[in-house]
Fold these 2 entries.
Entry 1:
Amino acid sequence: MTAGAEIAGLCKSFTVGDRVVSVLDGLDFTQRDGITVVLGASGCGKTTLLRLIARMDVQDTGSIRIRGTGSIGMVFQEPRLMPWLTTVQNIRFGLGRGACDTQRLLELTGLTGFEKALPHQLSGGMQHRVALARALANRPALVLMDEPFAALDQLTRERMQDQLLALQRAEGMNVLFVTHSIDEALYVGDRIVVLTHGRIDADHDVAHVPGQRSRAPDLEFTRLIRSTIQGEAPC
C-alpha cells in the first residue's frame, strides 16, 4: 500500500441556528491503492470528509493520517482557474520543488497546443483538464476529487472519466473520488465506499476486466448500492 488516507473515529458537526448537526459520526476508513469512490446522497458528509483530509477544516475528534510523502492535490466541482492566467500558468500556479514536467502534463491531459489559452478560450471539459493537471503538478501523495465532472454534459463527463482513468494508469496515483452518481462510481472506481448519515454503510470492491471497463449498467450492483443509500434492505 502506498499513498492514501487512514481515518479513525472521525467526527465533525456544525451549528445551524440553535442546534448542532452531526455530519461525520465516528468514521473509520483506510484507503487502498487505485481509485476509491465515496458515494452517497447530498448532505451525507462526502465533501466534509474531503475538506478535513485536505486540512481545509478541522475535525471535532478523531485522527487523519496521510501515508506517503508529498502534497495533497484537490480537484473541485468547478475548475477554479485564475482567469488572467494562461493554461501553463494555471498549471504551474503554486508549484514547489519536485514538481512534474509541465509539458508532460499537457500531453497527458490532451492540452498540447493550448498552452497560451486563457480559461474563457477553453471549453468546459478543457478547463477541467487544466484543473486536473494543476492538481497533479506537485506530484501529490493523494488526489482528492469532489464531484469534479458533475457540471459537465454527459458526453464531456464520459470523456473526462476516461481521461482520469488514463492518468491514473500513467501516473500510478491514488485518488479519493466523491460522487453521488452510481453509474460514475461503478465506472471509475476500483472500490466504492457508501456513506450515509456520516458513517460507512457499505464497502464494495469493483471487479473490472483487466484493461477494460464497461458503461453497461450492472443492475444487481446498482440495486444493492441504491438500497444502501436509501436505507432500505435489499429484497
Entry 2:
Amino acid sequence: MARTAKYFGLVPAGGAGRRFGSDVPKQYALLGATTVLERSVHALLADPRLEKVFVVLAPGDLRGAALFAGNSKVTCLPVAGAERANTVLNALNHLLNNFLVSDTDWILVHDAARPGLNSQALRVLIDQASAHVAGGLLAMPIVDTLKKGSVAESGEAIAQHTVPRSQLWAAQTPQMFRAQALSLAISECLFKGVQLTDDASAIETMGISPLLVQGHLENMKITMADDLRVVAKLLDLNGECSR
C-alpha cells in the first residue's frame, strides 16, 4: 500500500532583512511580546495536519534555535543559503536525503515575516491544494490601479501607462508543493540562472500551473519597519512592537 502523503511546514529564516532598516533582522523583531518568527511558525502549527515545521536558519544562528528549544513540533535546520531560493533548496535536499520527508509529501513554504496568517486560510489552502495536481498558494487579487513607470531626465518618476489588472494576483505564502517536485524545480532554475522571488515561480517554469487560493489582508509580509506597525494594527496588537 502506498504511503499517505504528509504535510510539513518549511520557514526560511536565514535572511538579514537589509530593507528592514534595523540591527535586528525582521524575523526577530517583536510583534507584541512575541517575535515575528515565532508568530509565523505558530500560525502554521494551527492546522493539526502539519506533522512538523522546519525553520531554516543561518549557520551559527543560536537565537532562532533558542526560540523553539523544547518544542517537538519545530526543528531548526542551520542550512540557509545566500538567497531565499538557495535556503529552500538546501532545506529540501537535507530533508529528502535524510528521509525526514518523502518525495510526495506536501511542503508548505511560509515566509518568516508573515505572522498574520489565519487558520481558516491555511485550512482552505491545504484542502484545495491537496486536490490539485500542481499544489497551490495563497494570493490576493490586485484591486489597485497599476501604473508602468519610468524615470524622467529630471529624475522624477512618471507614469507611462496603466497595466490591466484583471488577471493579476499578489502572491502570499504558504505555497504548497510536493517535496521532490519543488526541489527539482528550484534546482533547475538556479542551474539556469533564473531569478526566483517565490517558490511558485519555480514550479511555473516547469510548465505547471499552481492553484491560486484566496489569501487575506492580515497575511501581509513585513519588509520595511513601518510594516511592523501596520501588521500590529491589523492583528489588533495595539501597535505594541519594537525592533
